[in-house]
């Protein structure tokens, strides 16, 4: 039933208490947020109509594409997705054009990126709603294993 839609995926990070164990600190540290976090992946229908899937509790050091690949088996093989530049490298996900090294994007590529991101903004709105209602905004104070 979902294969008729191109689902949109994105990650929201939720801060956690600073771990005392050095190895746990390394796994939970997110370079992007400069904080210890757990990643929550949202999969949303087009136009932000509904949340299809939520995967919670991945360590902050996990890349977006790795977390997506870990849960890809739950979807049909020919399901299409939209993602940001963190999802480049997976054949089922369409992503915006990335600027080449020491180069520039053409005007056509910039326009395509603008259109692509305008259609993908709905997942950002869903993340915003989750944070407004403090579902994924507050610091998670319990143990890591009780997060799911």
Topology (SSEs and partners):
Elements: E1 6-15, H1 22-28, E2 29-30, E3 35-44, E4 51-59, H2 64-71, E5 80-82, E6 93-94, H3 107-132
Parallel strand pairs: 1-5, 5-6
Antiparallel strand pairs: 1-3, 2-3, 3-4
Describe the structure.
With about 150 residues, the protein is α/β, with parallel strands linked by helices. It has three helices and six strands; from the N terminus they run E-H-E-E-E-H-E-E-H. It has helices at about 20-30, 65-70, 105-130, and strands at about 5-15, 30, 35-45, 50-60, 80, 95. Strands 1, 2, 3, 4, 5 and 6 form a six-stranded mixed sheet that branches. Strand 3 (about 35-45) and strand 4 form a beta hairpin. The radius of gyration is 16 Å and the shape is globular. About 20% of the residues are buried.
The DSSP helix count reads 3
Q: What order do the helices and strands follow?
A: EHEEEHEEH
The stretches of 5 or more residues where confidence is low (pLDDT under 50) are none
How much is the radius of gyration in Å? 16 Å
Shape: globular
* Biggest beta-sheet profile: 6 strands, mixed
Proportion of residues in helical segments: 25-40%
The fraction of residues in strands falls at: 15-25%
End-to-end C-alpha gap: 26 Å
- Oligomer category: single chain
Give the averaged pLDDT, no decimals.
83
Structural class: alpha/beta
**What's the total number of strands?**
6
């Amino acid at each position: 039933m979902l294969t008729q839609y191109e689902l949109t995926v994105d990650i929201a990070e939720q801060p956690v208490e600073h771990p005392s164990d050095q190895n746990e600190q390394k796994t939970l540290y997110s370079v992007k947020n400069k904080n210890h976090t757990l990643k929550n992946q949202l999969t949303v229908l087009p136009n932000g109509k509904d949340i299809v899937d939520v995967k919670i509790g991945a360590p902050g050091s996990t890349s977006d594409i790795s977390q997506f690949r870990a849960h890809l088996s739950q979807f049909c093989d020919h399901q299409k997705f939209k993602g940001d530049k963190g999802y480049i490298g997976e054949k089922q996900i369409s992503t915006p054009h990335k600027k080449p090294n020491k180069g520039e994007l053409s005007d056509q590529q910039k326009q395509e990126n603008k259109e692509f991101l305008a259609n993908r903004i709905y997942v950002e709105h869903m993340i915003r709603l989750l944070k407004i209602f403090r579902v994924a905004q507050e610091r998670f104070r319990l143990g890591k294993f009780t997060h799911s």
